[in-house]
Specification:
mainly alpha, two-stranded antiparallel ribbon
Length: 73
Amino acid sequence: EGTITRQEAAVMVVRAARVLGLDTGVDNADAILSLYADSDKTASWAKDAMAYCCQSGILDAGSELCPTTAILR
């Protein structure tokens, strides 16, 4: 029942997608994330993963990413 952050979950999802052979590349993570009010709170190591999850519809972010918010694994 441990928690992880939304950005940690995004990284895990992208790593799993890569194992399955999916292309998880994004052209410009900063441009994708700039659509969200709190994009500056996303850690540099999670930007590409967060952008992929937003672009792919995996992460329903609304107007904020909440990258450091804890979620249940």
